[in-house]
């Protein structure tokens, strides 16, 4: 058995490193706390660390988005943990949990020393990429020395499909942006009516097969919309039983395009395009979402 709930071997003479990664709202902190609490219930001495940059729920606790919390040490550098805890207490420790690990520049050195030299089990949770899908901090550096790596996913806020990345809702372009649902959400690269094809600084690349060029406006003429529909039908291999059904689906497609244009206004600098359910009714979408949710195991894939 592998994953965040895999029991650790308390008889192991050497330490271990276990990594939990994924996008925002994938349950990384929940998995970390569940695993650390399990170790404590088994009689092992545990301690938790988080970055002092994360002040959302106070500095003295690690708190999940669902309100579950455990006390922790809030530090700017992991290298200071041993001195702050004290040599005697540090020597008694069996398990060290690190949350928001992407903020610690000395993550690699700390994990190596704690596991290889001090015999500790280190459980690390953090983002593996930023909102541009680039590496974030030093989390990826410890993948090669980890005993296990768990990649969590969640549901896309926009379509409910399995989400692997973090989508930023605001205009900020700095890598570090600590916030909640108002500023970030889990997302996929393509869903039923939205595809992000260009980030705020032009570095996000995705599907560009629908090449209709328009200004940032919600006004489109009928000819342009029908041309977009034809392109979309070719792209997604969509066919209709007769001309009447095609006209009905075109009306639904046109509404989806309006949604895309609305999002352009809300998320300046991003481009949006209709996805694979662009011509479906609300009832059809409601019917297919439970199947997608079942596939993603209620939003998380083990």
UniProtKB/TrEMBL annotation:
- This enzyme's EC code(s): 2.7.1.21
Domain Cathepsin propeptide inhibitor residues, every copy = 229-284
> Which GO BP terms, alphabetically?
DNA biosynthetic process; thymidine metabolic process
What is the top-level taxon of the source organism?
Answer: Eukaryota
Please list the reactions this protein catalyses.
thymidine + ATP = dTMP + ADP + H(+)
Top enzyme category? transferase
GO molecular function, a single term: metal ion binding
**InterPro entries cross-referenced by the UniProt entry:** P-loop_NTPase, Papain-like_cys_pep_sf, Prot_inhib_I29, Thymidine_kinase
The chain's coiled-coil residues are none
Annotated keywords: ATP-binding, DNA synthesis, Kinase, Metal-binding, Nucleotide-binding, Transferase, Zinc
Matching entries from Pfam families are given as: Inhibitor_I29, TK
Record-stated family: Belongs to the thymidine kinase family.
Q: Would you tell me the protein name for this molecule?
A: thymidine kinase
